[in-house]
Specification:
Blueprint: H1 2-24, E1 37-39, H2 40-51, E2 54-56, H3 59-62, E3 66-68, H4 80-87, E4 92-96, E5 101-106, E6 112-113, E7 121-128, E8 139-142, E9 147-150, E10 156-161, E11 166-170, E12 177-180, E13 189-190, E14 201-203, E15 209-211, E16 219-223, H5 224-227, E17 246-250, E18 259-263, E19 276-279, E20 282-284, E21 292-293, E22 298-299, E23 314-320, H6 323-326, E24 337-342, E25 354-368, H7 387-390, E26 405-406, E27 422-423, E28 438-448, E29 452-462, E30 469-484, E31 487-502, H8 511-516, H9 551-557, E32 558-578, E33 581-600, E34 611-634, E35 638-660, E36 679-701, E37 705-716, E38 725-736, H10 737-740, E39 748-762, E40 773-775, E41 786-788, E42 791-792, E43 800-813, E44 818-830, E45 833-837, E46 846-850, E47 853-868, E48 872-889, E49 896-902, E50 905-910, E51 917-920, E52 936-937, E53 950-954, E54 959-969, E55 972-982, E56 985-988, H11 989-996, E57 1014-1017, E58 1022-1026, E59 1032-1034, E60 1040-1042, H12 1049-1058, E61 1065-1067, E62 1070-1081, H13 1084-1087, E63 1094-1108, E64 1120-1123, E65 1126-1129, E66 1131-1132, E67 1138-1149
Helix pairs in contact: 11-12
Protein name: SusC/RagA family TonB-linked outer membrane protein
Subcellular location: Cell outer membrane
Family: Belongs to the TonB-dependent receptor family.
Length: about 1150
């Protein structure tokens, strides 16, 4: 399959290049016009017909302006410089947007930066906006010679000037700036938004490009370069802390792992809360893959196919947060939409090609661990030195480094067959020594022409866990072809091969679990040779006499591999049917196939005879749609456009797997090597279709009042015929108050208010309507086995419905140097599709119903400012998010619902409470009297659980805040990102386990006299490790007295921590220095005669600093339970240690 795909891709590339070559040799049609005075609008229309270009402008900008058409280019290649010269007397200029798209805008007076001039020279620099993002396509003009250059995709430019020249820099949506050339060969220029002219154009639903000022809802747009400042294997992680309203949590510190992303809170009790991802107009799967492998019953995190997208190919990311913004995507957009637009041909190189290349190397180091104790070794609290105790994983044994000898896990055998005691010493680095320095090397090369871009990316990752990592290869092709002045075809094709020889696991039996529970007297370095001498391939060498796996044996012999081929692409036809009437028709495909393979060597604790599993997955989604759009200006300053279209979505999935729980020949991993009667088979097929009709329209007045209306109707095959049609409308209003009220002076530069209302539906998975039989494996002799689902399906299901309201404002001050965007929203989600328990007398254990209403309300605030502008530029941005969630109702007779469990902690949904509430064990309390509320112990002085579970906390934060800073001076640019999360709770099962077995420094208190232990007698011997639990005991008179019972540390800590979720639940507050980069941009003089237009070198780092309220080694961000593709926050188990990364990045343009 891989070989065929490669052949098809190569053939496609050569065919397209041949078409472009033929296109390049066609003759340009010449038209001759006599000299005449015509309106500027007519002149622009004539040039559109001659050169097949498109001009974008406001009607007011060109109104009442007349020109001699002979001043404009009329034949040959289109000459933007000549157009600029003709427009300059009118106070206008031209800015290139794409390879055939231009904008006409007014020349606005700008600030002038004066630097002492010199003679002829070359100037390099970067054009950025007020957020520090590059401005691709910015036009730089030498006013002395009218020479023009265009900034590249990264905002870089190079221009040759005279020392006394003045540069005019202009771009659509920005205030023009003039800069006098001076001594410096490096000139970075920041442009401020121009809210008086053509508004910034952004990508919205269905790929429709619209003016940002016209939108009555909140969206967030980020330039692709911001995602590449410090590269991450998964592009979703690069959004963390950068977008208000978006919550991103990584399941582990392992690159390529699953990511939980929610927009404006979770709105569904049992359904998916992940947003829809759309790449170049094609919806792509973002479901996390974390199946429980049937051999060994471990959960493997294979990540998500959305991580297949290469950050190097991304031009921009747009987040559609509310239902109004995403309504046109239908039921799948109820959780929001993330639009990814990839890079394409830029139209700047009419005569040649542009080649860019970049390389990055990032190194990962595990650096935060629990505070393991290294003073006491394995065993129990009696100090026993017999093998049973010193070989256990609990750490209540004798004191280490005291010169004594004990029988240990690796004690040699004497001639008489007895074990020989060895030195009882500590190995404080036993955990750190296991983890390696991880690395990620990423190389990208791209070739860009006027109407195409072809890129290749290679990623090689090595994990911090030995024998783990992943590899990824991306090929991305974007092309466009004009069949006629009114017909254009574009295509985007992306192929990814993502594979790994071994993915780490995070539950019991993982390397992390084994290492973290390893007593201090074990030297982990001695475990690298994981086979017993003379028994290679047959018996592992274990630190726990075979009851626990060797961590290196787990890493090298209990492997979980995968190999995924992923193809996304679309072909789009755009036709101008008449003046103002266009048709877009498109078909897109998201297709992937994956093979998973798990191997278990003989002598594994869970699979002593070896085991093998192989699974083959296939998934595809095809979307075919069209959109008809009509635009027209009306009398009296009105204008409108309307669009109508349809979509058909077809999903298909197929999974087949086989597992052998026992092998005949050790080390031969093949289903045919399975022992008789140990093979299990499983298969699953599903199809789903949604047909849709939709329409939208906009009515505007004087370009400062915009009314939007949209509607969509879906017909889902997953719902019953009487409920499979659901309609959802939206309406929004945007008012540019600064234009309405003609505010032209003072601190306020721009003011916009927006309000919207919308309703959107959400359906369910296929086959949720009727019960059916499923074949089970293995067979019962010659009889085929089938089982009937114990969950009663519902053939009367209705779609979930979410109704949303949103109010917001966008403000800019001080000539646009300070910008504030604030939004308040509320969303009510009704008809929740949930599974509730039912009486077994019905023959079922549960049934599926519509029930419940969830409300999310919150604030989003984004602030962008430029405190310092000039030779030194400082840009700062902050994103604030606060969301509150409430369960309004469940259903008649049900006031609570068990959403899930993790390590004994329950996630309960209760009326009047919030999604994310955690319920667990706590201690009994004195009910009355002077000690009311104090802990009530049993008669022996030990903790006892309360009679019922109590609410321990909620895993959602009080608020989150991301702060970005960009400092630019000369050749240098420094970027930082701080990610701050306040509040919320998480339960650490790892903390509970470590403390109850004496593995951390928290458990040193009371171990001996030096650590505050009490002298006592346990009934057989005198000891100095006595401890008294703090609490009260019921006396015989009905009162309560202070506890005075003495117990040993093993009983004390085991009793105190192991029983109670409440004692192991912590604040989820953290502050992380998420990203740091320092970039040096070389000037043309520094690169000399090298054929390089731009060269940059960056020092990059990720997670350099981390502070958590829970303490080092306990990361609330990775406090998640992953199972069967579902991620539940709030519980931390045996995750990988926290890592920080540092490296270098090199960028080249030829």
């Amino acid at each position: 399959m891989k070989r065929k795909l490669n052949r098809y891709l190569i053939l496609t590339v050569f065919l397209l290049l041949e078409v472009w070559q033929l296109r390049a040799h066609t003759n340009t049609i010449a038209y001759n016009y006599v000299s005449e005075k015509v309106s500027l609008a007519t002149a622009l229309q004539k040039m559109e017909d001659i050169f097949h270009v498109n001009f974008n402008y406001n009607s007011a900008t060109v109104a009442n302006k007349y020109v001699n058409f002979e001043q404009f280019p009329q034949q040959g290649a289109f000459n933007a410089s000549k157009v600029a010269q003709a427009l300059q007397p009118l106070g206008l200029t031209i800015v290139q947007l794409g390879h055939t798209d231009y904008a006409i805008q007014r020349i606005m007076p700008g600030n002038t930066i004066t630097i002492t001039g010199n003679d002829h020279k070359i100037i390099n620099g970067t054009i950025t906006n007020d957020k520090g993002e590059p401005v691709p396509g910015a036009l730089i003009t030498d006013q002395a010679t009218n020479k023009m250059v265009v900034a590249d995709d990264q905002g870089h430019y190079t221009i040759e000037v005279n020392g006394a020249s003045t540069l005019l820099i202009h771009a659509v949506g920005f205030v023009n700036k003039t800069v006098k050339a001076g001594n410096s060969s490096m000139l970075n220029i920041q442009l401020l938004p121009d809210v008086k002219d053509l508004s910034a154009v952004v990508v919205t639903a269905l790929g429709i490009r619209r003016e940002e000022k016209a939108l009555g809802y909140s969206i967030a747009t980020m330039d692709g370069s911001k995602l590449n400042t410090v590269k991450d294997v998964n592009v979703v992680n690069s959004l963390s802390g950068k977008v208000a309203g978006v919550d991103i949590r990584s399941a582990s510190s392992d690159p390529g792992g699953s990511v939980l992303i929610t927009i404006r809170g979770a709105s569904s009790i049992a359904n998916n809360n992940q947003p829809l991802f759309v790449v170049d107009g094609v919806p792509v799967t973002s479901a996390n893959r974390s199946p429980t492998v049937p051999v060994g019953q471990v959960t493997v995190d294979y990540g998500s196919p959305i991580s297949d997208v290469s950050p190097d190919d991304i031009a921009s990311v747009t987040v559609l947060k509310g239902a109004s913004a995403a309504a046109l995507y239908g039921s799948r957009a109820a959780n929001g939409v993330i639009l990814i637009t990839t890079k394409s041909g830029n139209g700047k190189n009419k005569k040649g090609l542009n080649v860019s290349a970049n390389f990055s190397a990032l190194y990962d180091k595990a650096w935060q661990f629990p505070d393991f104790q290294s003073e006491f070794g394995a065993g129990d609290a009696t100090g026993s030195i017999d093998p049973t105790n010193t070989l256990s994983t609990a750490s209540w044994g004798p004191k280490l480094n005291d010169g004594s000898k004990h029988i240990q896990w690796n004690s040699p055998v004497a001639a008489n067959g007895e074990l020989v005691p060895t030195d009882w010493i500590a190995y404080p680095n036993r955990v750190k020594d296991f983890y390696e320095t991880g690395s990620t090397y990423t190389s990208n090369v791209a070739v860009t022409g006027s109407n195409f871009r072809l890129s290749y990316t290679n990623l090689q990752n090595k994990g911090i866990t030995p024998n783990t990592g992943l590899q990824r290869n991306n090929i991305n092709l974007s092309a466009g072809y004009e069949m006629s002045p009114k017909v254009k075809v574009t295509t985007n094709i992306a192929y990814t091969n993502n594979n790994s020889n071994n993915r780490p696991t995070f539950n019991r039996g993982s390397s992390s679990y084994i290492l973290y529970t390893m007593p201090a007297n074990i030297n982990s370095k001695l475990l690298k040779d994981y086979w017993q001498s003379g028994k290679d391939g047959l018996q592992q060498f274990s630190q726990d006499q075979g009851s626990t796996d060797n961590p290196y044996f787990v890493a090298y012999q209990l492997t979980n591999a995968y190999n995924r081929h992923h193809v996304t692409g679309n072909v789009q036809l755009t036709m101008e049917l008449a003046k103002g009437l266009t048709l877009m028709a498109r078909t897109g495909l998201d297709w992937y196939t994956e093979t998973d393979e798990s191997k278990r060597a003989v002598s594994a604790v869970q699979n002593p005879y070896g085991a093998y599993y192989v699974g083959n997955l296939f998934g595809s989604e095809q979307n075919t749609d069209f959109l008809l759009t009509y635009k027209k200006s009306l009398p009296k300053d009105f204008a409108f456009f309307v669009s109508a279209g349809a979509n058909r979505m077809d999903q298909r999935s197929n999974t087949q797997s086989q597992a052998a729980s026992q092998l005949v020949m050790p080390g031969v991993y093949n289903i045919s090597n399975a022992a008789a009667g140990t093979i299990t088979n499983a298969s699953y097929k599903a199809t789903k279709r949604i047909n849709s009709l939709y329409a939208m329209g906009e009515l505007s007045y004087k370009s400062y009042a915009f009314l939007d209306l949209s509607a969509r109707n879906d017909w889902s095959s997953a719902l019953p015929a009487n409920h499979n049609s659901y309609f959802y409308p939206s309406a929004s209003l945007s008012l540019i108050l600064s234009d309405m009220l003609k505010i032209e002076h003072g601190a306020l530069s721009y003011a916009k208010v927006r309000v919207n209302w919308s309703k959107v539906g959400k359906d369910t998975d296929p086959y949720s309507l009727y019960n059916s039989f499923s074949f089970s494996s293995p067979d019962w002799g010659n009889v085929k086995m089938a089982t009937f689902s114990t969950t009663l399906k519902n053939n009367n299901l209705k779609p979930e419905i979410a109704t949303s309201y949103e109010v917001g404002t966008d403000l800019k001050f001080f000539n646009n140097r300070l910008g504030i965007e604030a939004t308040w929203y509320t969303t009510d989600s009704r008809n929740q599709i949930i599974q509730i328990p039912t009486t077994m007398a019905s023959g079922y254990s549960a049934r599926i119903i519509n029930a419940g209403e969830i409300r999310n309300r919150g604030w989003e605030v984004a602030i962008h400012g430029t405190p310092v502008s000039g030779k030194f530029i400082w840009d700062i941005g902050a994103n604030f998010t606060r969301n509150r969630n409430k369960v309004i109702a469940l259903t008649n007779g049900i006031t609570s619902y068990l959403q899930g469990t993790a390590e004994g902690m329950q996630y309960q949904v209760r009326e009047g409470e919030s999604l994310g509430d955690m319920y667990g064990n706590t201690w009994k309390k004195v009910p009355d009297g002077p000690y009311k509320g104090m802990e009530l112990l049993d008669e022996t002085g030990h903790s006892q659980n309360a009679t019922s579970l109590v609410k321990i906390g909620n895993y959602n934060p009080d608020f989150s805040l991301g702060i970005t800073n960009t400092f630019s001076y000369g050749h240098f640019t420094l970027n930082t990102l701080i990610d701050y999360r306040q509040g919320g709770k998480f339960f650490s099962y790892m903390f509970m386990n470590l403390l109850s077995d004496g593995r951390t420094t928290n458990t040193l208190k009371g171990r001996d006299l030096a650590h505050g232990g009490l002298a006592w007698n346990d009934g057989t011997s005198d000891r100095t490790d006595g401890m008294i639990e703090d609490g009260y005991i019921a006396d015989e008179n009905g009162g309560y007295v202070k506890n005075t019972n003495i117990t040993d540390p093993e009983t004390y800590y085991g009793d105190y921590y192991w029983k109670m979720h409440a004692r192991n639940t912590f604040s989820a507050t953290y502050v992380k220095l998420r990203e740091v980069s320092l970039t040096y941009l070389f000037s043309k003089e520094q690169t000399g005669r090298l054929p390089i237009s731009n060269l940059s070198v960056s020092l990059i780092a990720r997670n350099l600093f981390s502070w958590t309220a829970a303490g080092a080694g306990y990361d609330p961000e990775t406090a998640m339970t992953i199972k069967s593709g579902s991620i539940t926050p709030g519980t931390s188990s045996w995750s990988l240690p926290y890592t920080r990364s540092y490296g270098v990045k090199l960028g080249l343009n030829f």
